[in-house]
Amino acid sequence: MRKAGDTEVSFQTLIAPAPFADEISCQCQAPHEKLTITQARLGTPVDRPVRVYADGIFDLFHSGHARALMQAKTLFPNSYLLVGVCSDDLTHKFKGFTVMNETERYEALRHCRYVDEVIRDAPWTLTPEFLEKHKIDFVAHDDIPYSSAGSDDVYKHIKEAGMFVPTQRTEGISTSDIITRIVRDYDVYARRNLQRGYTAKELNVSFINEKKYRFQNQVDKMKEKVKNVEEKSKEFVNKVEEKSHDLIQKWEEKSREFIGNFLELFGPDGAWKQMFQERSGRMLQALSPRQSPTSSPTRGRSPSRSPSPPSPWLFNKASPPSSPKAASASISSMSEGDEDEK
């Protein structure tokens, strides 16, 4: 179990970059006694952490590097991880050219959360003097034999001494894979950086390729503009289709309503027909009024009906008819008047 002092050291590691080994003295104050892997896995006192060493080039620092360091850090309950980073001269001599220079690679390791200390200009092959100087208990690396510097495996003597602890490689990611992607898509990255303001000289691009890349960039811009116009036109067409669909739906609703109202008004049993029939009946009544009923003949008169009064001239003695012809005309006119009354 760790004490408060050890917790404080870990906390400082998380909020600040890991220190360089050549800037500090070895902080392991306890005597550096030889540990076995079994003893280390059981746990050690707080003031005697297991000092684990991992080395490499760490070019284009990526998640595969970080996972390997995480495994090295968590191999034992109480551990202190030292990471050795080889210099540019040594790397170019034994492995090849790097993308990042040594200073960039040192800084990348300092800011990894699992690293407690960084050793600059680490040796390509570990010597007993180096191991003793940094009081290293175990060396962590993947178990694949690493042939270099005229040796089939530079960690062979570490394995024979019982100081080697294997870690697992992360498949699908490596510095070589990243460089392969860049080489494969070189034209894309060159065009992108030219567009961002880098010069052809900085990119080591020839004059002809520069013109070709710039022309391709212009073509891509035109394609992007055409694509944007097509997308906008599609959006416009979709909006028009949506609006036309709504208009057609509203028109159908209104047309059904109009047809229903038309049939209700002008259909076979519509209100207009009833109105027309009513008005036709009124016009017929106005054009041909009803005749008054004729009276019954004299013989059939009701006894209660009073007889017609006699003509005044019959009782007027002062004005008799002047001649028989006039008298007969008067009688005939009276008879006609009676017929009219019948």
From TrEMBL:
Highest classification ranks of the organism: Eukaryota, Metazoa, Chordata, Craniata, Vertebrata
Annotated Low complexity bias: 288-305, 318-335
Catalytic activity: phosphocholine + CTP + H(+) = CDP-choline + diphosphate
Presence of keyword Magnesium: no
Protein name, UniProt field: choline-phosphate cytidylyltransferase
Record-linked CDD domains: CCT (cd02174)
Coiled coil feature spans: 212-239
Family per record: Belongs to the cytidylyltransferase family.
Pathway in which the depicted protein is active: Lipid metabolism; Phospholipid metabolism; phosphatidylcholine biosynthesis; phosphatidylcholine from phosphocholine: step 1/2
Function: Catalyzes the key rate-limiting step in the CDP-choline pathway for phosphatidylcholine biosynthesis.
Keywords assigned by UniProt, alphabetized: Coiled coil, Lipid biosynthesis, Lipid metabolism, Nucleotidyltransferase, Phospholipid biosynthesis, Phospholipid metabolism, Transferase
SUPFAM superfamilies referenced in this protein's UniProt entry, alphabetically: Nucleotidylyl transferase
Gene Ontology MF terms: choline-phosphate cytidylyltransferase activity; phosphatidylcholine binding
Organism from which the protein derives: Chrysemys picta bellii
Any Pfam family hit: CTP_transf_like
Region span, Disordered: 285-342
Taxonomy, superkingdom: Eukaryota
Keyword Secreted: no
InterPro entries associated with the record: CCT, Cyt_trans-like, Pcy1-like, Rossmann-like_a/b/a_fold
Entry EC no(s): 2.7.7.15
